[in-house]
Amino acid sequence: MSELAFWLALYRAPGVGSITFAKLINKFYSPQGVFDAGRCAWESAGIKGVLLDYLQTPDWKGVDQDLAWQTQGSNRWIIHWQDTDYPQHLRDIHDPPPILFGLGDRQVLNSPQIAMVGSRNPSRGGEEIAFDFAKNLSNLGWTITSGMALGIDAASHRGALSVKGNTIAVLGTGIDRLYPSSHRQLALKIIENGALISEFVTGTAAKAQNFPRRNRIISGLSHGTLVVEASLHSGSLITARQAAEQGREVFAIPGSIHNPLAKGCNALIKDGVKLVETVDDIISELGEFVRQMPSEFLPETSTDQTKLDQDYQQLISQMGIDEPVALDTLVERSGLTPEVISSMLLILELRGFVATAAGGRYLRLAPRT
To answer: How many helices (H) and strands (E) does the chain have?
Structure first.
């Protein structure tokens, strides 16, 4: 019997969630240690009822089903807490899933991520905003993480895919049960440019109670969560709350007071969530994470200024190549706020147009020939 088989067997035990699983591991040192301990040790640990019965007769048939699924393709994998590929950011939350089932590139799990969530029935404008934000964030090296649901989720994944960016879809079903089925082609593209993942064992169908659970994984994987369009009763607000509880940044795009799909976002902003109008508003909050990104996740640099928006070109024109300039000087010259300029400078630095100099000053880089 393999080590993974014991992990899966314990994971399938009735009433054993993330926290109970962790307690059992701490008590008996490993999943195999739990099963090897025997009835006396189980009863001494306070185990009783259906769990006590299950430990005597584990669901090995279900375990075989999980393992058989994994062997059916080279891009299929099952990882647990102790695997080096298990995402560290997710491991840090209160109740990380002991096991993840995945399709695609498991390395992307440890890439810098931003979660994007919103209505399943958004306005056309909301979908366009989600698409554009995902595209622009992807261009800056962020992986877009969402739930592959209809509406904002799907638009966010597609925005990342439009620039061949990485994207992760967290499912509320077993990894072998695609939901919604209409997203089969989208799922295939996500697998090519990222991963589909699920904490649910194979064969798990779509159930309403599973989706709030999966939302904690979406936010837990990410440095921040952006809510694009959501009503007051949207499940996206659950994701936003979970992100805040996990100590992650939460962002929301405002909307008209007359639009019911904007009421959830406006309520979040009223409660102190960061109001977002541009990608710069997100980068200004997550700039330190951007600086720490591994080089393989950063976008390719280019010093062709014609590829920049006009605002960025104007800011660069106010900087000298040989003489570093202070932030206060750029504020005075441009008329922009320090916060706006700081986020713009970070993006310009990442893209190879400027460099930081001593004393918190910035230097314009000469174009490469």
So the answer is: 17, 11
